[in-house]
Amino acid sequence: MALLKKDIPNIHVALIAGGTSGERDISIASGDGAEAALREAGFQVTRLDSANKDDLVTLINSSFDVAFLCLHGKGGEDGSIQGLLEIAGIPYTGPGVWSSATAIDKTKSKLFYERANIPTPASITVSAAYNPEDLTSFAQQAGFPLVVKPATEGSALGVEIVQAEADLPAAIERGLEIDTEVLIEQYIAGTEITVAVLGNAEPFALPVIQIVPRNSFYDFDAKYAPGGSQHICPAPLSDEVTARAQELGIAAHKALECRCMSRTDMIVDEEGLPWVLETNTIPGMTQTSLLPDAAAAAGISFPELCVKLIEFALE
């Protein structure tokens, strides 16, 4: 549904940010950015923190027209808050319960990428009781370096690039301190890009962003520290590679049955082939975050982006 300007002031938005995950501070920053943009667009906004039980009571007992989600990580991006909103009958921005729970789990999302013939690096998942022989066999096939990732954390929390087999067990142990499962993935050298997708039944891709991290890869510091990375949008890729990356971004959005928005991170290898790494269902919403950057490159201002997200939520 398209919102008329005269209708926007009558829409009461519950902006939910904060939460209890390791990405709480980033979520609060996203909430700050989105709140300013929503108010500039003309919406009524009430700010709520899902870590506060009184705020959750307010969410249930008040007459909100829509919830705007700025929760990152567990408790926000994993389907939890979405389930509560479904029960409460409150429309919300971003993908639904199943899509959120699947996308945040890198192991499970890979299964759906593969089912949809989306290229993604080879991987193995281990828990505390892993068989070292299985790990050795995978490492021999994939070669070093390998990427070690906690399976259900975002913002590159706990991600390490391991150069030698002797260093792998310690990296896995560090990952298991953060999560109950760890994904060990084939390392693809190349250019880091991300593709944001908007829409429900007919999703479309925004301009591709190239990410140039200050560190060896796009880790937590590169994502959030001042000067940690440079975003180039549109990415300096050939038309063919750009089209393929956007096609894969839409394919990932559909494979995980996303609606409203998603942002899929990829690596373009030395032969110009994009590989899908993971899909984010609640991308960052600060003034310098990747989704608002991509929207701006498409001529969509931050307030206009928020209007579109709410339109998709209310469809």
Structure explained in plain terms:
This protein is α+β, with helices and mostly antiparallel strands and 315 residues long. The protein has 3 domains: 8-93, Rossmann fold (3-Layer(aba) Sandwich), CATH 3.40.50; 102-119 and 189-281, D-amino Acid Aminotransferase, Chain A, domain 1 (2-Layer Sandwich), CATH 3.30.470.20; 123-186, 2-Layer Sandwich (Dna Ligase, domain 1), CATH 3.30.1490. The chain is built from 11 helices and 13 strands. The protein has helices spanning 24-41, 53-61, 80-88, 97-104, 106-115, 132-142, 168-176, 220-224, 239-255, 290-297, 302-314; strands at 12-17, 44-49, 66-69, 123-126, 146-150, 160-162, 182-186, 191-198, 204-205, 209-213, 229-232, 261-268, 274-280. Strands 8, 9, 10, 11, 12 and 13 form a 6-stranded antiparallel sheet that branches. The protein has a 4-stranded antiparallel sheet with strand order 4-7-5-6, with helices on one face. The protein has a 3-stranded parallel sheet with strand order 2-1-3, with helices on both faces. A hairpin with a 5-residue loop joins strand 8 (191-198) and strand 9 (204-205). Helix 1 (24-41) packs across helix 11. It is globular.
